[in-house]
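Let us practice reading a record.
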Amino acid sequence: MNTKDIKQKLTEEISKTEKQFEEYKELTKPVAPDAAIGRVSRMDAINNKSVMEAALRQTEEKLNKLKYVLSKVDSPDFGICVRCKKQIPLGRILIKPESSHCVNCAV
């Protein structure tokens, strides 16, 4: 697989993650206090909002990592583990493109 294919995969993953980020952003909007829902339902809505905020933060972090990796695809150290300096297997890059560590060092 060449650099062009990897860039294409990263671009697709960024697009998918951006859509997911926007969905989570919509789901984390405040719960209106004037909405006529019961106390238990309001507590459930607040709890769900907290869960969605955590997912939003994780998605934002993944998106930032993906964009960083895309900017590094053409560099000579792309695909090299930052800890052990060995080549990261192509399968790992394709499955988890934001990885900067090989499987052994990621543990």
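A brief commentary: Residues 3-75 form one domain.
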